[in-house]
Amino acid sequence: MIKDANQIENDINFLNSLLKNRQLDELKEKADLFINKYPEHYVGFFFVAVYCFYNNNFIQAEKYLNNSISKNKNIPSALNLMGLIKKNLGKLNEAVHFYKNALQHDPRDISIYVNLSSVFIALQEYEESLNVIAEAKKINESDQLLKINEVSALVGLKKYNEAKILANKIYAQIKDNPVLLNAIGTIYSQEKDYELALEFFRKSYEINSNDFNVFLNIISTLSKLEKNDEAINICKTNISQGGMNPETYNKLTSLMLKINNLNECYDFFSDIIKKNNTNSMAYNQLGNVLRLQNKNEESLISYKKAIEISKNAIYFNNLGAAYQELNDFEKSEFYFNKALDLSKAEDKKSIPASYHNLGNLYTYTKNFELANKNYRKAIEVEPYFVDSFRSLVRNKDLNLSDIITKNFIRIYDEDLIGDGESRSTLAFALAELYEHSNNYKLASKFYSEANKLIRKTFSYSTKEQEKYFQQLKSIYSHSNFIKYSFRGNETKKPIFIIGLPRSGSTLVEQIISNHSKVFGAGEVDYFQRTTFEAEKILTKKYPFKLSDFNDEIINTLSQFYLDKINIDKNIEKVTDKNLANFFSVGLIKIMFPNAKIINVCRDKDDNCLSIFSIKFTGLYPYAYDLKEISEYYTLYQDLMDHWNNIFPNEIYNLNYEDVINNIEEETKNILNYCDLPYEENCLKFYNNERPVMTASTHQVRKKLYNSSVGRWKKFEDYLKY
Predict the structure, then answer these.
(1) Strand order through the sheet with 596-601
(2) Which of 305, 353, 558, 644 is the most exposed place for a label (fewest CB within 10 A)?
């Protein structure tokens, strides 16, 4: 027995020496021999786990270490190593458990304190991290790794001045620690010294290219410096080389959206799929790109393919959202609940998003009580979930005195969510709350801040837009319409409702669709899809020349549209309220010469303010600066004047204010234009059970009100073009 004990001790000492000298291959060989010789001893399994860990094989490391710990649960080094393994596997809470257990057996091991404080930082529990560091300082207050973690925790708590003072002291002694370099980069980024921040992020990444957070910091900083091409290339390289972090895929799409090049983004993910048809992330991102292009039906195919490969809550959420945008609310609800169930079982991070998506669904379908319940559940799980907060504000379920509101005001004031998408969403919500409280000065402040945060993320030029408008007017000119004539489809069913966002178009559609002979299709993308189909047929981009068409092509396209909108034979009329169709009036009249077109106009000041006070989910690049909104309004009016000149007395130009001031008379006029008999039920538009998925979903559920007329006067002292 003594001989065996001595041999074991000698073997352990030898294994330790191999580890100390990083002779890892020999370490693995000797550890395997030890296991064969002493299968019930923990040591052999421990050293094989160490070997696997250093080779980044964390799953195998976990397997061997579990075997080791099962044989001896009281070895601090094994428990500490398991914490490291769990952290690398993303099992952060489990890592905390093992570190704490290790400290119980060895409360003076500084390395365990360092690891525990580090994992609390990863969990964004910065106060907890500082508490651990404070305990460790009682043992050794000079440990540099502890101090570096302290810097990171202070940065996480937005205590940048304290962090900077401490960081500078450490950096004078240590210049090659990647964690410290990343923290310093974050401090400079907060100070908006992006060039210097980028320098430190890059230094950190050169030392440790496995730190994905640093990778994201580099991408974000390049974007802030408007070095979008470089950021895009880095993302593309990462993905092409097998990078499988979903955030890289999201970043690439956001960057491509920023430079308005989603077509290239589509091509890139398509190529990735061709090279690897089991890449679920690529399929999911392709679906996201297609949705951004308003190709919702095509996005379904990509999302379903992603789900076939990997049952992921995010993919189910996206699939549900695509069905929602296609007005298939039954399937949408099914997939949102599927995502929620999966989130609860596996991916806890997706729980708030799933609750929020269900909240949106119930809002659109007029079940506000259930909607608000789900929004509150989302915030309960994630107190910083600003999307649900804004939705509660929009549903009039919160005021300035509510605890939830006070918490989000604190989050905004203390700058706890950065300066990106979430902060802008929160600013819009707070602006709306202050407007409800008649504090137009503060409302203006928050509307302005919200829009500035979004506007700085992309490039946009009114002059470039003007070129497109002029191109349309040139192609679809009066002389060209005289030169070319087409039979088109004779159907009288479509009613196209066009205009700018926030012009009152949703109200108009609610009025018309409450008629017994009308189906309200809503803001569908079917005419845009028809233009995509035309692009395939003509192998050209829209806008097309009239000389490109013939009767056969026109009939093919018109039938394509009618098949998509799927009009019930028993329904006489159907409304299509995609506002962007105002670009396509010329093509609509070619395809459907008997179609009705209602252009909804609104007072310019009110319309521009209303656009400015809404955070849109689609592509409205002009919508975040009052001057640019005003310029776009002028371009729209000019184009509508052009259409009215070409098609005199064929377009019904409806003023929103006239509807508000005399709804009965205007309803009669609208119905008469649409060749529909008057029905009093149209005046009860607020009872319409049709789902509404626009920013006006709340307004059209109420009886007619005039508070939005002249709204701009309340803001004229604070907001200027």
Answers:
(1) 518-520, 573-576, 494-499, 596-601, 651-655
(2) 644
How crowded is residue 455: how many other Cβ atoms within 10 Å of its Cβ? 17
> 216, exposed or middle or buried, with CB in 10 Å at 0-12, 13-18, 19+?
middle
Question: Distance between CA atoms of 490 and 488, rounded to whole angstroms?
Answer: 6
Please give the single-letter amino acid code of residue 345. Answer: A
What are residue 494's phi and psi, to 5 degrees?
-70, 135
Residue 106 burial by Cβ neighbours in a 10 Å radius (0-12, 13-18, 19+):
middle
Q: How far apart are CA 293 and CA 619, in angstroms?
A: 9
**pLDDT digit string, tens, across residues 315-341:** 999 999 999 988 899 999 999 999 999
Alpha helices in 592-648 (DSSP H): 604-612, 626-646
Question: What are the tokens at 182?
Answer: 């990343």
DSSP 570-601: T-SEEEE--GGGGGGHHHHHHH-TT-EEEEEE
Cβ atoms 134, 144 nearer than 8 A: no
Q: Which residues contact 365 (CB under 8 A, 6 or more apart)?
A: 329, 691
Give me the pLDDT at residue 689, please: 56
CB-CB neighbours of 214 under 10 Å: 25
- Residue 492 CA to residue 489 CA, distance in Å, equals 9
CA distance 647 to 551: 20
Angle at CA of residue 273, ends 271 and 276, nearest 5°: 115
- CATH assignment of 239-310? 1.25.40.10
Helix and strand counts by DSSP (H, E) for the chain: 36, 5
pLDDT at 696: 46
Instruction: Name the nearest CA neighbour of 542 among 551, 550, 532.
Output: 532
Which of helix, strand or coil describes residue 404?
helix
Regions in the chain scoring below 70 on pLDDT: 1-3, 347, 419, 567-569, 618-619, 687-705
Q: Is the separation of the CB atoms in 79 and 62 below 8 Å?
A: no
Task: Give 13's contacts (C-beta < 8 A, 6+ positions apart).
Answer: none
Cβ atoms of residues 451 and 412 within 8 Å: no
- Residue 700's pLDDT is what? 43
> 626-662: string of b/e by CB count within 10 Å (b at 16+)?
bebbbbbbebbeebbebbeebbeebbbebbbbebbee
Asked whether the beta carbons of 585 and 420 are under 8 A apart, the reply is: no
CATH number of 472-714: 3.40.50.300
Q: Return the ∠ at Cα 149 (arms to 148 and 150), rounded to 5°.
A: 90
**For the structural domain made of 2-189, what CATH number should be given?**
1.25.40.10
| Alpha helices, DSSP H, located in 21-75 | 24-37, 42-54, 58-71
Identity of the residue numbered 494: P
Task: Please give the radius of gyration of the chain, using alpha carbons only, rounded to the nearest integer.
Answer: 31
Furthest CA-CA distance within the chain: 109
Name the pairing type of β-strands 573-576 and 518-520: parallel
> Which one-letter amino acid corresponds to residue 193?
D
**pTM of the predicted model over 0.90:** no
Give the contacts of 702 (CB within 8 A, at least 6 positions apart): 686
Asked whether this chain's domains 2-189 and 239-310 adopt the same fold, the reply is yes
Spatial contact of 354 and 339, defined as CB atoms under 8 Å apart: yes
DSSP three-state, residue 519: strand
